[in-house]
Amino acid sequence: MNVRRSAAVLAAVAVIGAATPAAADPSPSPSQAFPSALYGDKDPKFDGVWRQSLALLAQDTVGVKPAAKSVQWLTRQQCADGSFASYRPDPTTACDAKTMRDTNATSAAVQALTALGGHDDVTRKAVGWLKSVQNEDGGWGYAPGGASDTNSTSIVIGALAAAGEKPDRVEKDGKSPHDALLKLALPCGGDDDGAFAFQPDKKGELAANADATAAGVLGALGKGMVVEPGKKSDATCEKATTPQQAAANGAGYLTAALAEDGNHLMSALAGAEPQPDFGNTADAVVALAAQGDTAQAEKSVRWLEKNSASWAAQSGPAAYAQLIFAAHATGTDPRDFGGADLVKQLGATGPAPQTAGKTKSEASDEKEDSGSDFFGVWWYVGVCLVAGIGIGFLFTGRKKQQQL
Predict the structure, then answer these.
(1) What's the whole-model pTM score?
(2) Helix axis angle, 68-76 relative to 374-403, nearest 10°?
(3) pLDDT interval class at 267 (50, 70, 90)
(4) Can you tell me the distance from the alpha carbon of 116 to that of 52, in angstroms, rounded to the nearest whole number?
(5) What sign has the CA pseudo-torsion 298, 300, 306, 309?
(6) How many CB atoms lie within 10 A of CB 37?
(7) What pLDDT score does 236 carry?
(8) Minimal CA–CA distance to 215: which of 316, 127, 104?
(9) Chain centroid to CA 231: how far?
(10) Quick one: angle between helices 294-307 and 243-260, nearest 10?
(11) DSSP letter (8 states) at residue 350
(12) Which of 69, 102, 186, 400 could form a disulfide with 37 if both were Cys (CB 3.0 to 4.6 A apart)?
């Protein structure tokens, strides 16, 4: 992710932003006001839907119920055809031919809204649009019709899986997303055994890309941004004839790259001074955990605990979300991430949530108390019965608001 926009140019923008002093970052001026429902205070032109989706998904992952207006803002960003653009300043104006549809933003929105629940119409239309712009090789580019790339194809796979689809059965001209990924995987036997490329270059050659590899591992496994530790497989690089082998090969590449640079990845942006790449490192942690390579994932998440605070504070909600995903994937407490409360920090970048979730100790205490307070249980049932009277009005009112 690289606070991650999967298109190469936007990934580059994200890295440059991380390397630029905070004073140079775009921020609201007195004449520039962004929606109050939006997470983050920087110009959302290129990443509004993306960062909103990641923020909502991360909050749901840790048991936090986001502010209703933030969820509603995201749903209203959808175009009539089901797609999402990176950001629509005025969602009351219909999308037209000039609206730049974005497969990555659409896929991130699907993953977030599916996790939150209650938005089946929105996600169904979005998935339908994604299927309609699938390339002949089975993959997706950042924009409809663009050449397939590993990052875009992988995040669409995550959206399809989240929505209950079987990604390997979503085909165009007999080609599935996994067929596209296999063509973007580097062969064994070289310096970059098992890595994924972002896209072939003009000569059709593949170059290893760590961020694409992290995305490719998740895509090959059919996973989205939120994962549980998987079952470890053989890390030996072998010819990738299946997506599972491609994922194992990619994980092997990431493990070696992380270990080589001190348990983190380095930025490879041309012309820039070498520096730690926090976003890619977080992505690699998630990918390795999904693959079951937990030893290196845990080493790298410990590195992130010690070193990522300044990056996250400068980069904003998507960065906090990435760290929460990495913490979740490794069983690390996101409310005590190197002494920082990532959940609180993410929440501070947007509207106050409806519920704040529970810490591990609070959840444990509730579990111990459950069943021991007979009268407490029946009191709760009575409250629910009374509250239930108003539930129909609540949803009816919300539905009317969404239709406005």
Answers:
(1) 0.82
(2) 30
(3) confident
(4) 13
(5) negative
(6) 18
(7) 81
(8) 104
(9) 22
(10) 40
(11) S
(12) 69
CB 111 within 8 A of CB 224: yes
Cα 161 from Cα 142, distance rounded (Å): 19
Residue 327 and residue 305 in contact, taking contact as beta carbons nearer than 8 Å: no
Contact 339, 333 (CB under 8 A): no
Which two tokens mark 299? 């080493």
**Orientation of helix 294-307 relative to helix 317-330, angle to 10°:** 140
What does the block give as tokens for 25? 């970052």
Residues 86 and 374 sit within 8 Å (Cβ to Cβ):
no
Residue 314 CB neighbours (<10 A): 16
Distance of alpha carbon 329 from the chain centroid = 13
10 Å Cβ neighbour count for 44? 21
DSSP 197: B
Enumerate the CATH 1.50.10.20 domain ranges in the chain, comma separated: 8-364
Backbone angles phi and psi of 33, in degrees to 5: -110, 135
Tally of CB atoms within 10 A around 244: 15
The token pair that represents 190 in the structure block? 């070289």
pLDDT digits (tens, 9 = 90+) for 354-385: 987 755 555 444 444 444 333 343 333 343 33
Return the sign of the alpha-carbon dihedral for residues 351, 322, 227, 220. Answer: positive
As assigned by CATH, the class of the 8-364 domain is mainly alpha
Spatial contact of 247 and 215, defined as CB atoms under 8 Å apart: no
Instruction: Give the CA distances from residue 164 to residues 29, 127, 160, 279, 397, in Å, rounded to whole numbers and listed in that order.
Output: 42, 10, 6, 28, 29
Element counts in the chain: helices (H) and strands (E): 16, 0
Query: Do residues 67 and 37 make contact, with C-beta atoms less than 8 angstroms apart?
Result: yes
Express the helix, strand and coil content of the chain in percent, nearest 5 each.
55, 5, 45
Q: Which two tokens stand for residue 246?
A: 């491609």
Reduced to 3 states, what is the DSSP secondary structure of residue 19?
helix
- Cross-strand pairs, 196: 185
Cβ-contact 6, 142 below 8 angstroms:
yes
Amino acid 271: pLDDT? 75
- Which has the minimum average pLDDT: 50-64, 199-213, 310-324, 383-397? 383-397
End-to-end CA distance of the chain: 34
Average pLDDT, the chain: 85
Q: Are 26 and 43 in contact (CB under 8 A)?
A: yes
